[in-house]
Amino acid sequence: MKEKVKHTLSTPSGDKLWKGDKIFIVLMIAIPMLHFALFTLYVNFDSFIMAFQDVDYTAEVNTLKWVGLDNFKKFFTEWGENDLWMRAVINSFGYLPVTVCVMLPLSIFAGYFLYRKIPLSGLYKILFFLPSIISIVVLAIVFRNMFDASIGPINWILENIFKMSKDDIPNWLVDEKYAMWILYLYAIWAGIGYNVVLLFGAMTRVPTEVIESGRLDGVGIFREMFQIFVPIIWPTVSTMIIFGVTTIFTQYIHPMVLTSGNGKTYTIAYLIISKVNQGRLYYSAALGIMLIVIALPMIEFTKWLTGKIYDTVET
Questions:
Q1: Distance (Å, whole) CA 298 – CA 261
Q2: 239: part of which helix (H) or strand (E)?
Q3: Fewer beta carbons within 10 angstroms: which end of the chain, N or C?
Q4: Residues with Cβ < 8 Å from 299, sequence gap 6 or more?
Q5: Are strands 53-56 and 63-66 parallel, antiparallel or unpaired?
């Protein structure tokens, strides 16, 4: 008669330590699961319910009531009453060409020439990444002071070197003609360093055999950049493109810190945050749902489209 052997996990300290290990593993799994359940599932589910509710101020005691689609109807009413939301949509979508068509190519060029080890490349890496490690509030204040009418170096240069009159120098962060362009410029200035470091790191993983083979075949700098490096590091590039699309729906720090919405520099996310600060939580929840409905298909389409440009290259 064959005996059945039961295999158990053994430890030097015996079964008691093994049970302790199981408890430790369960706790380590429970902590992130609890965090996910509380701050992701519950928050998003509660936000979804809030979108169809509102406070009944007519009752003796303020109570919640079910209002159906009223919060969504308020948005379309606001859309028709003024150009606030239309301007926010235009400003927000303006970040897409800025991040994808301007900042990303500049980052690729900078990362490539750093990879080629131009003189002082180590110093340039520090300078590029410096804005990314400084607090965004401090960085925004420094940038805002550059365009300050009284202490800013930009106005001083225009006044003392180009001999422009003070009356002819615009208030950069308030004037509607310039304010939003200043925010786009800040997006490039503050974000290019982070991109450069990521792209440079991706380029360092390109096999040297491929690069040497291309150079033996007479491949020049630009062909090497666009026909060797870009296809190989395309997963990193495509991720940055997707982040550029998400910026349309998430950018609120720039107008909040730099202009406080002056000069009609509000974005979609900034207006939603403003509604939250006004106490219109249930209306803001409805706006968030509408934003998700629009943003998710755009992001998925971008992900699909970037995946069709280059196949993933194994290195």
A1: 26
A2: helix 234-250
A3: N
A4: 242, 245, 246
A5: antiparallel
Q: Is 247 exposed, middle or buried (0-12, 13-18, 19+ CB in 10 A)?
A: buried
- Amino acid (1-letter code) at residue 162: F
User: Both tokens of residue 244?
Assistant: 């550029």
Residue 47, both tokens: 């936000």
3-state secondary structure of 64: strand
Mean pLDDT, rounded, of the chain: 85
**Among 265, 243, 252, 288, which Cα is nearest to 91's?**
265
Question: Which ranges of 82-135 would DSSP assign to H, the alpha helix?
Answer: 84-96, 104-115, 121-133
User: What is the value of pTM for the model shown?
Assistant: 0.82
- Per-residue pLDDT tens for 142-172? 888 888 877 888 888 888 888 888 888 888 8
Q: Tell me, what's the pLDDT at 193?
A: 82
